[in-house]
Write a structure and sequence with these properties.
two-stranded antiparallel sheet, 16 helices, 10 strands, single chain, 349 residues, alpha+beta
């Protein structure tokens, strides 16, 4: 009999040996384990309730509406509980891993959208070794590897959607599902606007986050039909397609079918980011003070986030050593820093 797997929560906590001396850690881990067990039971019972006639006898229009009223949650959440619970009936390995705390509800929600009796074991193994926040992208790469181009494009086309809802503070949240290339084009316009507009502190003295800068760019596009800083509707922007030996991706790592690259190559303006045999972006040099677009792309691909504080907003490229010393701009002497850290470093010099 195989040895039962320990919950990754317990194994990854770092406090297994001495958790008795860390009461808050012990209490939080115990609470999370109970929550995981309760979530497993909730989706299981919710599905059973939905398949009964008890909700109809109570005069509710659907089982989800009855659950939503009883639990004081949104109907969409109740529908998701029912969907997950029903899917787990045909996914015994996933249901067992969920019950034992090996995978979280967050992962189970994602798995039940793609897992079948044929691929369950493989996807479950992928989920166990992938953080929940990265599982969607990991499964997307798996789907791209294991599906034919025609199947993948048909699925993505049939899965497109757009919805929105008004939040309690009056703000509106949009949820849009688009094929990778379409999404890449949509992201590229506000991204170009953010990159070509110098961020400034607001009246309150706070610097806008990168998410807020994107929101401003999208708002400008919606209001005027042009993205701020891009030169109007005909403003120039680019979509970066990474072509590697193991497949093609957008700049953020989202997998994209090779057929899409082949289709847009004859008519599209593509910017290639070339990787060497070890997967590293190739260096590019210049004697200009400011890095070129290609140099910025190479540094961003290499560093991913800012070197000092780990932030991911307010992008700036810093010369190390300073340009006044080196009189050149080369990739291996550029580092990513957020604007406040960049300014602070130069104040200290």
């Amino acid at each position: 009999m195989p040895t039962p797997r320990r919950s990754p929560l317990l194994a990854a906590s770092g406090f297994v040996a001495d958790r008795a001396t860390r009461p808050r850690t012990r209490a939080l881990l115990a609470t999370i384990r109970r929550l995981s067990r309760d979530q497993h039971q909730v989706v299981q019972v919710a599905a059973e309730f939905a398949d009964s006639d008890e909700w109809a006898a109570a005069g509710s229009p659907t089982a989800a509406h009855w659950i939503a009223q009883a639990a004081d949650i949104e109907v969409s959440t109740a529908r998701e509980w029912i969907r997950v619970g029903r899917c787990l009936r045909s996914l015994p390995a996933t249901a067992d891993a969920f019950a034992r705390g090996v995978v979280s509800y967050s992962k189970v929600r994602t798995l039940t959208r793609f897992a079948t009796a044929d691929n369950e074991v493989e996807l479950l193994a992928l989920a166990e070794q992938t953080p929940a926040g990265h599982l969607g992208r990991a499964i997307a790469a798996w789907v791209e590897r294991t599906s034919s181009t025609e199947q993948l494009e048909r699925h993505q086309h049939s899965s497109r959607s757009c919805s929105w809802r008004t939040e309690p503070d009056g703000m509106v949240t949009f949820t849009v599902r688009l094929a990778p290339l379409t999404a890449g084009v949509l992201v590229a316009r506000p991204e170009q606007a953010v990159m070509t507009t110098t961020a400034r502190p607001e009246e309150s003295g706070h610097w806008p986050t990168l998410a807020q800068q994107y929101a401003d760019a999208v708002g400008a596009l919606a209001e005027t039909g042009s993205d701020r800083g891009s030169g109007g509707p005909a403003g120039r922007f680019e979509v970066v397609l990474h072509v590697r030996g193991d497949g093609c991706t957008l700049d953020d790592g989202s997998p994209i079918p090779g057929s899409v690259v082949e289709r847009v190559a004859p008519t599209g303006f593509l910017r290639a980011l070339i990787h060497d045999a070890e997967g590293r972006p190739i260096n590019a040099s210049s004697r200009r003070r400011h890095p070129t677009i290609r140099q910025r792309r190479v540094v961003k691909e290499r560093d991913q986030h800012w070197v000092d504080c780990g932030a991911s907003s307010l992008l700036e490229y810093d010369h190390v050593p300073d340009y006044v010393v080196s009189r050149r701009t080369v990739v291996h002497e550029l580092q990513l820093r957020c604007a406040p850290c960049h300014a602070k470093r130069h104040e200290e010099i």
